[in-house]
Prior knowledge:
Blueprint: H1 4-13, E1 24-26, E2 30-34, E3 39-42, E4 45-46, E5 70-73, E6 76-79, H2 80-97, H3 111-114, E7 127-132, H4 138-141, E8 152-156, E9 161-166, H5 169-181, E10 184-185, E11 192-197, E12 199-203, E13 209-215, H6 223-235, E14 240-246, H7 260-265, H8 275-286, E15 291-296, E16 313-314, H9 321-324, E17 332-333, H10 338-355, E18 361-363, H11 385-404, E19 409-413, H12 414-418, E20 429-431, H13 436-444, E21 448-451, H14 454-457, H15 473-478, H16 491-495, E22 511-518, H17 528-532, H18 535-545, H19 557-573, H20 584-587
Parallel strand pairs: 3-7, 7-9, 13-14, 13-22, 14-15, 18-19, 19-20, 20-21, 21-22
Antiparallel strand pairs: 1-12, 2-11, 3-4, 5-6, 8-9, 8-12, 10-11, 16-17
Helix pairs in contact: 2-5, 6-8, 10-11
The structure holds 2-acetamido-2-deoxy-beta-D-glucopyranose (10 copies).
Residues 496, 498, 501, 547, 554 line the site of one 2-acetamido-2-deoxy-beta-D-glucopyranose.
EC number: 3.2.1.52
GO molecular function, one term: beta-N-acetylglucosaminidase activity
GO biological process, one term: carbohydrate metabolic process
Amino acid sequence: xxxxxxxxFILASQVLAIWxxxxxxxxxxxxxxxxxxxxxxxxxxxxxWSPSSFDPVDTEQIMxxxxxxxxxxxxxxxxxxxxxxxxxxxNLNTLFDQGLVPWKLVGRNQLSQFEPAANSSQTFIxxxxxxxxxxxxxxxxxxxxxxxxxxxxxxxxxxGKATISAVSSTGVMHGLQTFIQLFYKHSTTAGMYTNxxxxxxxxxxxFAHRGLNMDVARNWFPxxxxxxxxxxxxxxxxxxxxxxxxxxxSWPMDIPxxxxxxxxxxxxxxxxxxxxxxxxxxxxxxxxxxxxxxxxDMPGHTTSIGYAYPDLITGFDAKxxxxxxxxxxxxSLQLNNTAVYDFLQTLFNDVIPRVQPYSAYFxxxxxxxxxQVYLLDPTVKSNESSVIGPLxxxxxxxxxxxxRSSGLTPIVWEEMLxxxxxxxxxxxxxxxxxxxxxxAAITAKGHKALAGNYNFWYLDCGKGQWLDFDNGASFQTYYxxxxxxxPTKSWRLVYAYDPLAGVPANQTHLVQGGEVHIWSExxxxxxxxxxxxxxxxxxxxxxxxxxxxxxxxxxxxITASPRLAEMRERMVNTGVKVGPVQMVFxxxxxxxxxxx
Length: 596
Ligand SMILES: *[C@@H]1O[C@H](CO)[C@@H](O)[C@H](O)[C@H]1NC(C)=O
Ligand SMILES: *[C@@H]1O[C@H](CO)[C@@H](O)[C@H](O)[C@H]1NC(C)=O
Ligand SMILES: *[C@@H]1O[C@H](CO)[C@@H](O)[C@H](O)[C@H]1NC(C)=O
Ligand SMILES: *[C@@H]1O[C@H](CO)[C@@H](O)[C@H](O)[C@H]1NC(C)=O
Ligand SMILES: *[C@@H]1O[C@H](CO)[C@@H](O)[C@H](O)[C@H]1NC(C)=O
Ligand SMILES: *[C@@H]1O[C@H](CO)[C@@H](O)[C@H](O)[C@H]1NC(C)=O
Ligand SMILES: *[C@@H]1O[C@H](CO)[C@@H](O)[C@H](O)[C@H]1NC(C)=O
Ligand SMILES: *[C@@H]1O[C@H](CO)[C@@H](O)[C@H](O)[C@H]1NC(C)=O
Ligand SMILES: *[C@@H]1O[C@H](CO)[C@@H](O)[C@H](O)[C@H]1NC(C)=O
Ligand SMILES: *[C@@H]1O[C@H](CO)[C@@H](O)[C@H](O)[C@H]1NC(C)=O
C-alpha cells in the first residue's frame, strides 16, 4: 500500500493550499511573487486598494462597474462596488500583513529548500483582473438559499496575469479568499510568493446554506467575538451566521418597544446587543457574504422573558426542573393567553423592520417543548398533546403570518414538524438536529431541510456535564459525568458527516445545506475560538466541497489534514485562536507516519 508513488502523492498534496477544497484545481510548479504595487482592476476599472481598513457602508468608491446596482437596506447602502472594493483591501492586507511562513508544513529544516530563491530574476504578478459578470440585486445581500450564484473561476498564468471571474460580488469574495491562500511569506525577505503557477480553479459550493449556529444566550459574548467569528466564517466560505439569540438563561438583545426584556432578562443590565450593535453585526456580515439569521426560540426556552413579564410564562423556575424543562431555569410561554399574543405582536413589530433589510429569514425556534409545564399553565392546565398541539399550531401560525407579511421566511426546529406534526407553510425551512432519519423525514414531507446531526455537528459535546454531582448515589450513577452528547466531535468526526446521509436521491434537492452548532453552556469568549475552530472548518469543507470528491469517493482525512493544518495557521495569523490540527511532527511532511 505504501508504494513510493503513494508516498509522493501524500507529500505533494501537502502544499495544495486551499480550504475548503475547490471543485476543480490544476496547478504547476512555477514561482511567482506578488508585491503591494500589484494592479487590481474590477470590471476594467482600476482599484486603488487602501492599506488600511475602512467601512464600505459609508464609503462610495468610484470604480469600474456602473454603480447603478446600489441598494438601500434600512439606512445602509450596499453596492457591488463598495463591497468588492472593501474585500480587495481586506484580503490584500491579510496577504501582505499576515502572511504565512510555512515552516510547520515542510520537513524539518527544509524551509530553505522549499522557498524560492529571492534574486533578481523574480517574476511578479503584474495584474489581478476581477470580472463580475452580472449585476448584484438586493437578494444578493439577503438571499434565500439558491438566490446567489457564488461560483468563481481563478487563473494565474506563469507570466504573472491573475484573474478572478464570478457572477456575483459574493463569488468575487470567495475568489479573493482563495487567491490569498495561494501565497506564502518568504522567511528572510518577507516577500510573498506562490510556487503553484500556472493555477486554474473552477469552483462553486455544493450547498447553498452553509452556517454556524452560535448560542449567545447561555453565556454573554461581547461584540468583538461575533465580529471575529464572522471573519473566520468568511475565510471558510460559510454564508450564514445563525444567532441563537435568546434562551431561558438570558435575553441579550434590546427590544426598544419592550425595554424591560433585556434590562431585566440579560445577565446584567447592559449586557445586551443594542439596535446599533445588531445593525453592525448584520452589515459587517453582509459585506463578507454572510447573512445573519436571528432566532427567538419559543414557546420553550423562554424563561428569561419572565424576568420582565412573569405573567406570560408558565412554570417559571419550576422544580424539579428535570420534570418541566430540558435545562434550568424552567419556563415556557403560556399558550392560551391573549397577553402572550399581544407581546409577540409587539416583539415582532419591533424586530422585523430591523432584520428585514439584511436577512431573508427569521428563526422562530420550537425545540424541546415540554408538555408537563403546561399542567402548570393557568390558561391550559393540561399535558395532553391533543390540547397543546393545536395551541402551538396557533402560536406558530401567528408568528409566521407576521413574518411573511414583511417578506421574511420562517425557520423552525424539527420538533415542530416531526413531533408536534404542525402544518407548516411550504416556504418554511425546517432545521434538523436529532438524526439523519429526521432530515429524511422532513424532506419526505416535502419540506426544505437544514442538516446538522448532533452526533456529528454539535461542537459543545464531550466537555462533560455542566451539572455538579454530590458524593452520594448520583455521583456513582453519573460517574465519569459524560454529557448528553459525549464524546467530543473531533474535526475528523465533523468531517465524516454527510448532510445527505439517508436522504433518497429524489429528495436531496430539498436539503439546502446545514449548520454546525456551538451551544454555550461551557463556552464563553475565553474559549470560543478553540471550541469552534478548526472543527467548524471541517463542516465548512463538507458544505462547500461536499462529503464526496468529484469521483464520488468520500474525502480523505489523510489529504484533508495537511490542508486544514495550513488553514489553521492562516487563521491564527489573522487573530483567531484556532486549536492545532496535529503536532508539528505530523505537519512537517511526515503524514504517512501520522495516519492509519
Ligand atoms: C502541483 O503542485 C504540487 C505541489 O507543489 C506539485 O507537486 C505538482 O507537481 C504540481 N502539479 C503540476 C502538474 O505541476
Ligand atoms: C438609521 O437607523 C438607525 C437605527 O436603525 C436610526 O437610529 C437612525 O436614526 C437612522 N438614521 C437615519 C439617517 O435614518
Ligand atoms: C535565481 O535563483 C534561481 C533558483 O535558485 C537560480 O536558478 C538563478 O540562477 C538565480 N538567478 C540569479 C540571477 O541569481
Ligand atoms: C468558469 O469556468 C467555467 C468553465 O469554463 C464556465 O462554464 C463558467 O461560466 C465560468 N464562470 C465564470 C463566472 O466566469
Ligand atoms: C383557551 O382559553 C379560552 C378562553 O379562556 C377558553 O375558552 C378555551 O377553552 C381555552 N382553550 C384551551 C385549549 O384550554
Ligand atoms: C400527564 O401528567 C400526568 C400527571 O403528572 C402523568 O401521569 C402523565 O404521564 C402525563 N402525560 C403526558 C403525556 O405527559
Ligand atoms: C405526530 O406524528 C407521529 C407519527 O405519526 C406520532 O408518533 C406522534 O405521536 C404525533 N404527535 C402528536 C403530538 O400528535
Ligand atoms: C463514506 O462516508 C460515510 C459517512 O459520511 C460512510 O457511511 C460510508 O461508509 C463511507 N463510504 C466509504 C466507501 O467508506
Ligand atoms: C423517491 O424514491 C423512492 C425510492 O427511493 C420512491 O419510493 C418514491 O416514490 C420516490 N418519490 C418520488 C416523488 O418520486
Ligand atoms: C519527516 O519527513 C521529512 C521529509 O519529508 C524527512 O526528512 C524526515 O526524516 C521525516 N522524519 C521522520 C522522523 O520520519
